[in-house]
Amino acid sequence: MGITGKELAEKLNISATAVSMALNGKPGVSTEMRKRIIAEAEKAGYDFSRLQLKKNHSGDIYCIIYRAHNAILNYTPIFSELTEGIEAECRHKGYGLKTLQVYENTDDLTQVVEELRICGCVGIILLGTELSAGICRRFLEASLPMVLLDASFDAIDCSSVLINNVQGTYLATGYLIDRCNEQPGHLCSSYSIANFSERKTGFQKAVREHGMSVSKSLSHELAPSIEGAFSDMLEIIDSGTPLAKCYFADNDLIAIGAIKALKLRGYKIPDDIAIIGFDNISEGRILDPSLTTIDIPRRFMGQTAVDQLIRQMEDPASHTVKLQISTSLIKRFSV
Known about the structure:
This protein is α/β, with parallel strands linked by helices. The chain has helices spanning about 5-10, 15-25, 30-45, 50-55, 75-95, 110-120, 135-140, 165-180, 195-210, 225-240, 250-265, 280-285, 300-315; strands at about 60-65, 95-105, 120-125, 145-150, 160-165, 185-190, 220, 245-250, 275, 295, 320-325, 330. The chain has three domains: about 5-55, no CATH class; about 60-165 and about 300-325, Rossmann fold (3-Layer(aba) Sandwich), CATH 3.40.50; about 165-295, Response regulator (Rossmann fold), CATH 3.40.50.2300. It is about 45% helix and about 15% strand. This is LacI family DNA-binding transcriptional regulator. Pfam families: Peripla_BP_3. GO terms for molecular function: DNA binding.
């Protein structure tokens, strides 16, 4: 039979706590001491499989996808990357994961919250893309550790992990202005969510800091889907509404729909009108011309949300945090 942790501590004349921290990869011991403990454990036949068993926690983390109007979450590939990151990190940290979709129009939220209290849920990651502050408070009534993903509310004390929309849009609009040397227009979503509101702030900030007037930027409202944006943009073009020489679009779906409409009416992209999107979805890569856009590390966002939730579960007294994940510019041929 192999040596126990307590016996190993006695043999090395150190505390059992130090042995536990070293074997479990936790901070609190020096690198040299950790190496010494692990080497001695291997030599003495310590059963390292015990550590793996300890990692399998009881209870599940719940990833809850809240759907309101479903205009945004209807495009699933974006959010599957988030959930892949959540799943990978839960598996790595030894937690089970269950995914629950809650529909505003059909599900009884009171019942959902009550079931969360009794179903073995140990923590919640709430995808808040279409969430309101009022609904967020309802989920907090479950009295479980919770992290908001892709949303944040100033009036609610809840940790959140979200996109740095202002930074990404500022980056995109600045690049658009520098390349085109023209007053940029804005292809806005006709559905209002916090992400799009923040992107408007980033757009206006970039316009002002390039010495231009925000009031001179043309703005068109389009549905946040390829088909909807295509139809809306055709109507705008056919109505004779003046068009800008370049546009920032609130997301790639809007950008792609607008490009298809413009090309159908004889405009050349980017020679006549340049367009940049936001999200870096796969359709943008195969579009002709391929779409310049802003990339979001969605898998990393999901992993970060799990890390923050586990930290909150292990230390309930810790302060809440708001983590904004930076984005990067993908240069292609629509600008």
